[in-house]
Amino acid sequence: MPPPSNSSFSFHSSIRVSLVATKEKMGEGEKFQLGTTGALTLSVVSSVSIVICNKALMSSLHFIFATTLTSWHLLVTFCSLHVALKMRFFEHKPFEQKAVMGFGILNGISIGLLNLSLGFNSVGFYQMTKLAIIPCTILLEIFFFGKKFSKRIQFSLVVLLLGVGIATVTDLQLNALGSFLSLLAVITTCVAQIMTNTIQKKYKVSSTQLLYQSSPYQAATLLISGPYLDKLLTNLNVFSFDYTKHVTSVIVLSCLISISVNFSTFLVIGRTSPVTYQVLGHLKTCLVLAFGYIIVHDPFCWRNILGILIAMVGMFLYSYCCVIENQQKAASEAAAQTSQAREGESDPLIGVENGSTVLNKRPPVWSKEKD
């Protein structure tokens, strides 16, 4: 029995290599999913923790300077990341300075506008403003990036927004200035979150590297504008506040938690998408409402319960649809790689067979000796 030809051996080896590469890619996908789950969990835990902490700070201790507090959060985040850089926990990767500066300033402006929107509108209208961020993000990604959202995803988001709206929106008092500020807040927030995702992919930087380079600009924007915005909204001066030991300790705790909040925000948007991050934000809202009722005994009614249940159904549908579509995408990519490997080997096989045919057509050596 003749030994297998080199061509068939090469073909089977290529198939094995392709299968190994596919398995390795599936393993990387599982690690990516595990990392994404960790990022989502970190974001939820840290965000709910800082909301509870800030609620105690503002409601019980009457420190109501939200914009200035956010600037301190970003400043502490930058300092902690700088220490981590010096300890070589991550590598500094500089990229286009104009992009970093514009991104950082835009993020700072969006935070200030959201606070102004809350100050000049009713709580119900402010919640509607936050609900409008998801549809606006989807429209921007469709028009400017050509991204497509399936009918299942769209339906799940409608259910989610309906539930959150029922749970949180109460009164809708409109005014021209408040509506204009809300519109600006929605647009700047959507653009900033889309940029968070696109910058990480375009310049191949991690969430930590992007946060480290942009947080100084965010902090500077809010440090300059924060005291003026807080003065406008509260008629109080942040610098004349009585900083007791209790107040200072809670502020320090809030700043420490904010490190995890800011880091997880960039991590989640970089690993998933701005829409997924907003869905996660509404999950946090529902959890905060539930914890407020259980722990602090905030007023709760059947409307809140119904809205939270509907929102949870929408979140489950969104998560399920995302998992199914990611699995389908991974399977189609694996099938495409396998078919490309087979097609790539078909040409060399034909070439070898043709070559062997040509070689066989040459006269053998013994015939020359015979002549």
Q: What this model shows, in words?
A:
This protein is mainly α and 371 residues long. Helix content is 84%, strand content 0%. It has one domain. It has twelve helices and no strands. 33% of the residues are buried. Mean pLDDT is 81; it is low at 7-31 and 349-371. This is Sugar phosphate transporter domain-containing protein.
The largest β sheet comes out as: none
Q: Would you count the extended β strands for me?
A: 0
* pLDDT averaged residue by residue: 81
As for the number of domains, it is 1
The gross shape turns out to be globular
Order of helices and strands: HHHHHHHHHHHH
Give the number of helices.
12
Strand portion, in percent?
under 5%
Structural class: mainly alpha
Cα(first) to Cα(last) distance is 32 Å
Q: Radius of gyration, rounded? A: 28 Å
Poorly predicted runs of 5 or more residues? 7-31, 349-371
Percent of residues in helices: over 70%
Domain Sugar phosphate transporter: 46-319
InterPro entries: Sugar_P_trans_dom (IPR004853), TPT_transporter (IPR050186)
Region (Disordered): 335-371
Pfam families: TPT (PF03151)
